[in-house]
Amino acid sequence: MSALLAPDQLENSRVAHELIRLKLRVPIVHYLTGIHPKPLRLRWRQLHGQSPPNGKLPDSVRPFITSARKLADLSTFVALYNRLDDGDGRIVTAAMLLSVWEVHCRLAQDHLDINAAWYAIRDVRSRIVSWHRCARCQAMFIYEPDVSQARSCPFCRLAKARG
């Protein structure tokens, strides 16, 4: 006979299920929820009909910043997360990631890769990348001098490109 799960364990399991459904990588779901990778991999196979992706995870959000549009999307997600998070400001939680993801999807035209969104939040909060305010438009954005697409405000660049 299996033991009953406490309500917080049930919620943690539900959040993990949703994050896997959204294709957040298993090691990240494990990190966020503390659930062992084996049942998470099994859940992935059940939901997606294939094994979860293998291979090295990126070290940071940097590889996901491929254009001004991507940088703007990632910066918007981080700004939304920062606005809605009522935690300590440093720790990224699975439940908050899922909650902000759902809001972002209702508001955004383009959908981000949830893995990129997680890295963006983590990296800004741990100061792996900088979080700057544009002197011209006052928008906050991910600033990273080592990534050509992240050396200036993506919102100003996109506005300029529109004409």
State the distance separating the first and last CA atoms. Answer: 66 Å
Please state the CA-atom Rg, rounded to the nearest Å.
Answer: 17 Å
User: How is the largest sheet built, in terms of strand order?
Assistant: 1-2
Sheet of most strands: 2 strands, antiparallel
Helical residues, percent: 40-55%
Number of continuous helical runs: 7
Order of helices and strands: HHHHHHEEH
Beta-strand content estimate: under 5%
What is the structural class?
mainly alpha
Q: How many strand elements?
A: 2
The best one-word shape is elongated
* Weakly predicted, low-confidence segments: none
What is the total number of structural domains? Answer: 2
Q: What's the pLDDT, averaged over the residues?
A: 92
Can you put this structure into words, describing what you see?
The protein is mainly alpha-helical and 163 residues long. It has two domains: 7-48, no CATH class; 62-162, no CATH class. Helices cover 53% and strands 5% of the residues. The protein contains seven helices and two strands, in the order ααααααββα. It has helices spanning 7-21, 26-33, 37-48, 68-84, 94-107, 114-125, 154-162; strands at 130-133, 140-143. α1 runs antiparallel to α2 (26-33) and α2 (26-33) crosses α3. The longest helix is centred in the middle third of the chain and has 17 residues, at 68-84. It is elongated. 34% of the residues are buried. The model has no long low-confidence stretch (mean pLDDT 92).
